[in-house]
Q: What sequence folds into this?
């Protein structure tokens, strides 16, 4: 009896579904934008689709804090006995943080220069801005003093209810570090609860993302109707800037390897290539982990502290691309809606990209979801996040390429020098 091979339709791919939703929505919106005076049917259609798209975005927004809080607590307090791997873990975290900060600064500066050259029709951006549902914060609300004081909430529960993510994250980190010092019994009970909460929220988010094609179709139709054919040039420019800024630090990883001289650049490239190929195809750092471990073991002969601890840690929590695409996305949104992006707003986005990268959920476009409350805090329309989720398929390949390469780099530079008999051959 021959085996029956069941081929899954490519239309079951969520990436294809949201891409089609984006393309069809933009096409319909651009057709509608050609009307000199919108008809009653057009106005009714865009109004209904605006409600659908906004409702989907609101549904996504409500999941962010209930998802981030348990992920952070489990990630920080559930890491096991820090004494056994404390030195290596601290060194790895220092490298992660340093690379994230460097990429965030690089992306913020480069994005401002590049996006200053993007010009869109002022009338089109005015129509889009008029359709957005957001309130720009006052200058005082974005001052350095107000921002610093806002990081320490008087009431963390109210901060969570208001959707102000950074104060909630800082309070959660404080709680998680304190929980790590609690006796094993109470700590394990709380960790079990928060693991269950995180797993449950991931299911809720997957349900909402299953509706992403419809929500993005609605958002894209409104965007196309307001912006017309100018949206195509903006999207192409967004791809060019983001992919370029992702490739630059990817290449820089090889330069760092050459400067540190821990291994040869040739061996590093040979070890990383299989994992990079898997990462580009799967768009997942975790899916690339077995190939990373194999390359680090067989080609680079790194000790087990690197292959068994640093690499899994990096694949789980280190998302270097967050330091890049958060700034690019903020500039892209500001240009689409004809809004200024001040230095203080940009600083909030860059800091959030660094801090929140360690709690990015392991789901498609998980990092995009975390931008929603940040956009709310600085006065950018959150509707644009839905568009960026749909645009994420192509850039996500380069994001994963950067993540995999940086994971291998951290494993190499933090690996202790071990006697030959301690290396895994």
A:
């Amino acid at each position: 009896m021959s085996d029956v091979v069941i081929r899954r339709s490519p239309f079951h791919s969520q990436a294809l579904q949201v891409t089609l939703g984006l393309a069809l929505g933009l096409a319909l919106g651009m057709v509608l934008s050609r009307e000199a005076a919108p008809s009653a049917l057009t106005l009714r259609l865009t109004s209904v689709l605006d409600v659908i798209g906004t409702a989907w975005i609101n549904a996504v927004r409500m999941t962010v804090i209930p998802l981030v809080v348990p992920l952070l607590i489990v990630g920080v307090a559930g890491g096991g006995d820090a004494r056994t791997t404390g030195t290596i873990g601290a060194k790895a975290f220092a490298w992660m943080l340093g690379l994230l900060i460097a990429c965030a600064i690089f992306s913020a500066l480069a994005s401002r220069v590049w996006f200053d050259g993007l010009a869109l029709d002022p009338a089109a951006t005015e129509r889009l801005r008029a359709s957005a549902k957001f309130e720009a914060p006052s200058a005082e609300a974005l001052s350095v003093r107000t921002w610093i004081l806002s990081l320490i909430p008087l009431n963390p529960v109210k901060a969570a209810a208001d959707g102000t993510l950074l104060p909630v994250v800082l309070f959660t980190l404080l709680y998680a570090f304190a929980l790590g010092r609690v006796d094993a019994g109470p700590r394990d009970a709380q960790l079990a609860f928060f693991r269950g909460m995180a797993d449950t929220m991931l299911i809720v988010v997957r349900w909402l993302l299953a509706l992403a094609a419809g929500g993005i179709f609605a958002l894209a139709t409104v965007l196309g109707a307001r912006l017309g054919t100018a949206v195509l040039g903006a999207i192409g420019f967004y791809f060019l800037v983001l992919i370029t800024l992702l490739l630059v630090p990817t290449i820089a990883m090889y330069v760092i390897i050459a400067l540190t001289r821990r291994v040869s650049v040739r061996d590093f490239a040979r070890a990383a290539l299989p994992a990079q190929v898997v990462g580009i195809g799967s768009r997942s750092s975790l899916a690339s982990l077995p190939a990373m471990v194999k390359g680090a073991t067989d080609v680079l002969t790194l000790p087990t502290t690197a292959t068994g601890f640093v690499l899994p840690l990096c694949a789980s929590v280190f998302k270097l691309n967050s330091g890049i695409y958060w700034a690019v996305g903020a500039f892209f949104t500001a240009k689409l809606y004809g809004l200024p992006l001040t230095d203080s707003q940009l600083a909030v986005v860059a800091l959030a990209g660094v801090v929140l990268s360690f709690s990015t959920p392991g789901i498609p476009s998980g990092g995009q979801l975390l931008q929603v409350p940040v956009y709310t805090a600085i006065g950018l329309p959150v509707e644009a996040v839905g568009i960026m989720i749909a645009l994420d398929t192509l850039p996500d390949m380069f994001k994963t390429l950067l993540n995999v390469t940086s994971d291998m780099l951290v494993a190499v530079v933090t690996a202790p020098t071990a006697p030959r008999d301690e290396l895994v051959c």
